[in-house]
User: Fold this.
Amino acid sequence: MTLRDTLLHWLPADSRSGVARRAVVVWGVALGIALFQWATRPGEHALDRSLVYSYAISTSIWLLADPLRILMRRWFGTTGPHYWKPSWRTALHILLSVVLGYAAGTVVGDAYSGHSTWELLTLSPQRFWAFWLSTLAMSAGFVIYFYLRGKSEDLQRQATEARLKLLETQLEPHMLFNTLANLRVLIQTDPPRAVQMLDRLNDYLRATLRGSRAHTGTHTLADEFARLGDYLELMAVRMGPRLAFGFELPAELQPHPVPPLLLQPLVENAIRHGLEPRVEGGRIDVVARREGQTLRIDITDTGVGMAPAAQRTDHDGGFGLAQVRERMASLPGGSGAVQVSSQPGHGTTIRLTLPLQITP
Assistant:
């Protein structure tokens, strides 16, 4: 668990990174305000007092307007990851957050400085209300900025999910057509094995349909490995003893979210272009490991290997590696990476690296 998750464990997991980013922005602006007040009126605003007032007021308003808003998400009727919804309830909450946050921060600043800011209300009402209205205006600016940024991130997320869904609809028919072509050959040459393959295909399609009905843009790594196992069992019917395979998935990585059908195109390529050309076939191993804050997945085969030019594009201009590269680039921030290591005649290893996203 990261320090951020430890400090913000009382908030929903999907909101913590956004809350932390907004806190950094608020505190950065608070520092700027304190330095500006001290620099423009050094005799009236000591640096330490300016810092205490600025940070106390900004932090108080932020705590009430941001984390508290997320905790009250049911009352506001909002959902993650940004929990923003324009409504009279939101407007009322923000207004009260500014008023109460300003009052609370001022109390902290007054306690530190040893004098009362509220005396300004009697001594110089115009100055007091000007300062209060400027605080309200800055707070409103923060709210508008964070709302527009959250809306922009939502639109980006929706576009990414639509792109991944399109790629997934391309992958499913590709696998199905290849399997049906193999099934047609087996029907003519080995009917009993064709029946076995048809049964496996039925199981695979049932699991795929069940997963698509619960589709949310990602599923767990355990689900991905389970679907990959169904596919390899299907291929094992056709190839018999020429195909061996193994998986390694630590328990701590099983709930990690990944895009559906991320690994299958690579395994499909390994069979078609790596193992099938070898008379004796070969073995495929899929291993997931954690390295610091990174998830590493290796797909290794003992096939015929790849030429250097194919490693930069795809096996013989095929479908799998290029699609996986595009899917990895479609992850938020384009944070996934694909590495290919191969020698002709000695097999291929394809390594996927993704940022770790395990939530407690």
About this structure: Residues 161-355 form a domain with the Heat Shock Protein 90 fold (CATH 3.30.565.10).
